[in-house]
Amino acid sequence: MLTRRLIRVKVFKELFGKVASGADSLVQAEKELMASCNKTVDLYCFLLGLPSALKGVAEQKIEAGLKKFHPTPQEADPNRKFVENGFIEILENDTVFGNLCSGKGLTWGEYGSFVKKLYASVAASDYFKEYMENPQRSLQEDIALVKAIYENELEDNELLEDILEETSVYWMDDLAYVVNVILKNIPTIARKKVVDVPKTFLKEDDREYALKLLTKSIVNYDEYTELVSSMVSNWDLDRLVATDLALIVMGVTEAVTFESIPLKVTINEFVDISKYYSTPNSKVFVNGLLDRILQQMLKEGKIVKSGRGLVG
Q1: Dist. CA 25–CA 139, nearest whole Å
Q2: Residue 291 scores a pLDDT above 60
Q3: How far is 42 from 46, CA to CA, in rounded Å?
Q4: Is the pLDDT reported for residue 253 higher than 90?
Q5: What is the mean pLDDT of residues 21-29?
Q6: Residue 145: CB atoms within 10 Å
Q7: Of the N and C termini of the chain, which has fewer Cβ atoms inside 10 Å?
Q8: Residue 237's pLDDT band (cuts 50, 70, 90)
Q9: Could you give all domains of the chain from N- to C-terminal order, each with its CATH number?
Q10: pLDDT at position 286
Q11: What pLDDT does 308 receive?
């Protein structure tokens, strides 16, 4: 499930946190990194249960309307199109997936207030009204509605962000990525009529990559920070932005450790991460300094590339 980009981000956070706290346990750092990676799959399951929770709110509203002494015509003859959404039924009929979510506590029961507010937002949207007003029914239309909910309702949703932050410290920056994975997987779920929960790592060597990048960065942190200092004339190491330093150390570690990853890829990846996790000027600083360090180490024979790593 995790891309190399997201793995780098998670390793960066673990490395930065460890350096900031002064913790010195490699074993603990590795455990926390693996927990962070595995939690992304949990977030996938948690968010995939959201359409069913929204359906539950809609059903409650229908039932409340039917129980009124003087219901309106709409309440007396409710439009049940959403609560009979075919894709949501597929999610609910997968008992293995349901039991997995229940067993891990990845359900929306305790967040009823949020789900009601989210449903109100969905129900007020043009895409939902158009869906409900269309008398035709098809699984493709049901799929399109669910995708529209993920595409329109979760980004920049402060209430959802608060829930994710309170639920798991590892979910802080995974939301957009996980939503994209869900959108990509929805057609497959609909076709197979079963939820295949993705594995944490796309390939087994990604797990090895994550652990090795973290441990090598920690072990060589002091050596590589001194290298950074030697490359920055008239610049006290203490004046370097801590996030920039961590990213450069990781970049050097990746370049030295993984022969098959091209230097250009390493530089571009850590420069891109700096755009989101450091200062506005960091991308220029990280790009320039990391490139200089790696080119010097390459000339000195301290970096050796082979296979795909020779590209670029």
Answers
A1: 51
A2: yes
A3: 6
A4: yes
A5: 91
A6: 21
A7: C
A8: low
A9: 39-192 (no CATH), 220-310 (1.10.940.10)
A10: 94
A11: 85
| DSSP string across the chain | -B-HHHHHHHHHHHHHHHHHHT---HHHHHHHHHHHHHHHHHHHHHHHTHHHHHHHHHHHHHHHHHTSSS--HHHHS---TTTT-HHHHHHHH-HHHHHHHHHHT--SGGGHHHHHHHHHHHHTSHHHHHHHH-----HHHHHHHHHHHHHHHSTT-HHHHHHHHHH-GGGTTTHHHHHHHHHHHHHHHHHHTS--PPPSBSSHHHHHHHHHHHHHHHHTHHHHHHHHHHHSTT--GGGS-HHHHHHHHHHHHHHHH-TTS-HHHHHHHHHHHHHHHS-TTHHHHHHHHHHHHHHHHHHTTS----GGGG--
Q: What are the distances in angstroms from CA 226 to CA 161, 237, 286?
A: 38, 8, 16
